[in-house]
Amino acid sequence: MKNILAAAALLVASVPAIAQKIEATVPSKAPLHGRLIIVFSKDDKTEPRMQLDEQYKSAQGFGVDVGLDGAASVSTIAVDAKTFGYPLRSLADIPAGDYFVQGVFNVYDEFRLGSGKTVWLAPDKGEGQHWNRKPGNPYSKPVKVHFDPKAKEPIKLTLDQSMPAIAGSPHDPEVIAQHAPEAKWLRYMKFKSDKLTAFWGRDTYLGAWVLLPDGFDEHPNAHYPLVVWQDHYNEGMRPGFTATPPTGANARASAGYRFYQDWTQGRVPRVIILYVQNANPYYDDSYVVDSANVGPYGSAVNDELIPAVEAKYRGIGAGWARATAGGSTGGWESLATQILYPDRYNGTWSACPDPVDFHGYQNINLYDDVNAFVRKGDFGSVPVAGDRLPDGSIIATAGDEFAYEQVLGTRGRSTEQWAIWQAVFSPQGADGYPAPVLDPITGVIDKKVVQYWHDHWDLAAILKRDWPTLGPKLEGKIHIQVGDGDTYFLNNAVHLLDKQLQATTAPHSDAQFQYGPGMPHCYTGGPSEYTMQQNSANWAQRIIPQMTEHMVKTAPAGADVKSWMY
């Protein structure tokens, strides 16, 4: 952490001072603890707070900690030339001109962890960790200003608006469950986890959507396999499940309606689908493993929640009758779940998984690269790419993506992608926050932290190390699909894993891999003559029959393979 602060100080020390500042006032009777985020945009098609992202067309942002980690709590916060920004690093770099400007104050809570550490983090409030629409966050209405570096009068903003609550709104899962036309098949549970409560030092809950098969009520003696569907936080059900016919050209709604028809008319094998909401103070998803910083979400889901769901909704409750699937974050989760709990699951269908080999940490090689942002030759250098289009065009660099997250939150508190990987994979630092795997300002990689990542969370390394034990337990269970034009270069790590598993013996791995030439994130495999959108639209219908066929084929003698086959 000292190195990061020193790098930031060195960066801002070289920035020339300018006269014009921004002064943001947050009316509050209580002390303020959190992160002020100021956003400049060139247009008002949407509010500036909705235009800040990691790609090069992003609006301009600046961030300031208030009342955190020893900093003073003040109601009027100044943003000046030394305030860290993205894409431009300083107010001094912004050309004079007209802009729309808006401020948001992301409110943090004090968490007294079970470990004895105290940290300040932004709690999820039912919105799935979105600072720009988190309930209760103060913000200002967008104002059009003329920014002039030579002006002495500061631009003043008053954050006198408050973002609305989720509870009781149409976006509240409990409201959706009560009033949805799909309620005959959908159930929602708000599940208190004792393990997570002990870790976070406060009551901590999981949300669980349970999709019941057709005929559930009419067949009270039937027991069902369980499919755990892994995904980012969503207020509703994954995969999409809607009784409302689509209007216009809404392909996503069309897929949800088609799945609803197939599910309720018996055209899909009868299983229970479980979708878990596990947003946390670091991200919209926990990665469902036992992490030093995020907490024991693997144990909470697998040891607490799943047994409760299977007991209440007549699950078979055995490893041979469980499978898991997901894409992107869910792709990594589903593969990690199968590897880390090999006896409790009987197959994973993992699409476009997050990095499964840290030689391919997106486009960064954590083991061989010295710096995550730039690769240097004897006479030249090249920035490390972050995001791309399928044709190879670069639309973000790794350095800018980390700068974007640094604006949103210091100490790994951005609640964005790089931050959650660090939170999940890193040991807990002496200050209670995740140990940085690399400096977010300079890009220098910490090889000691990388070694911890390798030993605990590099899935390829775990499979290589433990293959004599894991290999026999994973036969017939691994199915991975990824596009070779993946937006985040996730195909690189998948190819490395594929090559590694091809070389295995005793047993030789039968893992199945499918690559989509030129396909972006998130490719789900399927017939090659179909488009990516067509394959994604019926992914659940394609893989659930594969799951149940494998379950029946590998079920132990005397297992219930008939009661759910009505």
From TrEMBL:
<dbReference type="InterPro" id="IPR050583">
    <property type="entry name" value="Mycobacterial_A85_antigen"/>
</dbReference>
<dbReference type="InterPro" id="IPR000801">
    <property type="entry name" value="Esterase-like"/>
</dbReference>
<protein>
    <submittedName>
        <fullName>Putative esterase</fullName>
    </submittedName>
</protein>
<feature type="signal peptide">
    <location>
        <begin position="1"/>
        <end position="19"/>
    </location>
</feature>
<dbReference type="Pfam" id="PF00756">
    <property type="entry name" value="Esterase"/>
</dbReference>
<keyword id="KW-0732">Signal</keyword>
<dbReference type="InterPro" id="IPR029058">
    <property type="entry name" value="AB_hydrolase_fold"/>
</dbReference>
